[in-house]
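Just wondering, can you check both lines?
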Amino acid sequence: VCGYGTEAFKEAWARDLTSGRKLANFALTEPQSGSDATTMYSRATINGDGTWTINGKKAWVSLAGEADVYLTVVKTSDTPGHGDMAMIAIPKDTPGLSFGPLYDTPSYNFLPLAEMFLDNVTVSEDNIILPVGQGLQGALMAIDIARVSIASGCCGLMQAALDTALAYAKNRKMFGGVNLDLEGIQWMLGEVATELEASRHLYRAAAGALGTPEGPVMAAHAKRFVPDAALKAATTCTQVLGGSGLLRPYGLDRLTLLAEMLRIVDGTTEISRVVIGRALQKRARELPDLPIPKGYGEA
């Protein structure tokens, strides 16, 4: 908003949003288009008076019904690709904007998620955050930030799982001692601790790269590695507790489900691999060809 919004929109919203007095949300995904955003159905058409009318549906909208404004990515024509995409701010009290029932998820209920319906929603041209042709660019910037944030949260999840396992293992008596004295348990939790440290360094490096040419691939590295490490940490720590790890009061079941979900939201692990793979292709094109060893392939 501060970097790209119109002066009129910034005057009306920027101060409240940056202070936290009001909340904004980002809406890109649709029920029929997730990883391939160019296939979205939501359309915005310009009217004779310069206003825009939007029709469509968004899915996985966080802060559904609670945010004060929704930064919504739409297409402005039926032309394939992303060259006609724009980002438009829609205040929550705009006529025609409504929300479906909250999603019932196994581990993400701390954040209201629902579908958002756009039925002849009309907004001023001042609400254009990113003009036609730049909507996907802005969406990808927002996603990079979200991916790094998820990696950061996963580090907290890993620490919580590790602390639970340590607190249990230091007192659980077995074979004449406590579990934490067993080399096998130390190895299991030591691996979790190492991957936690690696994850912290990776997400911090990715955060530092945001807004630079390396930002997207660093965010992809963090999103690919850290949630996977978090899921592994949660399952390993559950294993350390044995049968007790299945008891809900210890919370490891919740952490495991949350880690699984964080591998998917804001870009699946597989999409992160695609981003990394494309960066490697670009790097390979810049490298000189290797010399062919003498005698190799000769008749």
